[in-house]
Amino acid sequence: MKYPQHRIMDTFELPEWAGLNRNIYRPESLIPSQTQQWASVKWGGITHVMPNRVSHWCELQPMLLQANRDPRSNDVMVGRVVDLGRHTSIELSCGRKAEIYLGDILVGAFGNRYATNQYEGVVPSQLQHYHVLSQGAVFGQVISACGSMSDPTVIEPLGYINDGNGQPLNLTQFGITPCPNSRRIPTLLVLGSSMDAGKTTTAAALVRGLSLAGWRVHAGKLTGTGCAKDINKMRDAGAQKVLDFTSCGYVSTASTTIDELDSISSRLIDHLSIGSPDVLVLEIADGIIQTETDKLARKLVAEKKVDGAILAIHDVLSVRMASKLIEQDFGIPLFGISGVSTRSPLSSMELRRLTTHAVYDLPALSDPTIAMALEDFLASNASLSVHKRAIVA
User: Fold this and answer.
1) Which of 145, 67, 144, 146 is nearest to 110 (CA)?
2) Are the CB atoms for 46 and 30 separated by under 8 Å?
């Protein structure tokens, strides 16, 4: 437990109550003294692009290099769980969620994280231990955290996976390749005023409504930190094809360059455009003032790859500023407002008083009649004159 320090006469002392809880006895699990040869290996969800994921420690151990160098983003690391904190379970590469235990062998990869309601994490220099930053098994070092967050789960590095040439394996080696000459598909972005504004829920509801109307929808998440929950939600809602940045070999897009963002988004849009869907629904993580979100939105507009956006709002009062940023600064036509703020009829009513845009709660987005509203919106955009629109069923 960390205690506040009180400043007394130019020295620091702990308050009298600080040690009161130190001697409370609680039963604690012990880390196994050794790893059994046939112990199962748990491959984190962000490793799904990798082939040849062996099942047992005795198969994995000969593939390892010493962890004696600084990690780089997307390097694959094998670690042993030595302290359970925030994450007591992970998403596996097969898509299932699994409990983790002290002593478990966990395969993940290094990445940065930017999450205002959770952790700020970085890829650090070489350390004796690393933190688990997300459910997908992204590794790094937490440098700040939301006050409501517990301490992160800790792993002891056992080694990098050898790429066959004596170098650490990097997930970008397995990312999807560029797919030029794909047909331009009408594209709607889902943007949020902040983290946890309801972007993924909004995207899934829209996918559901359009799918019920007979539209063929492909969906994706262009930025974020590796976690399969969001793309699975879109898939469950009816999207016929779903991809995210991990398909490009990136476990996170935090602190990526504009060139990397362009490469990731271009590959995802190209691959999602295959099969001639009627529309692409693409989520960009975090709030619109977050650096990577801002960069990517402007880039997509400059390259004429986006036709509109739906804005997820967490707090009613933010709707005017967020709308202004999207329409005037980014230059993206706004289809409507949704998100957490529409869960209540009262806050939806407040939204309608503050904005001239259509306000959609989740039932409205999930209804097939949403397709007619989107059809009219896309048709009113002059840039779509070359597109062949789908007929609403």
Assistant:
1) 67
2) no
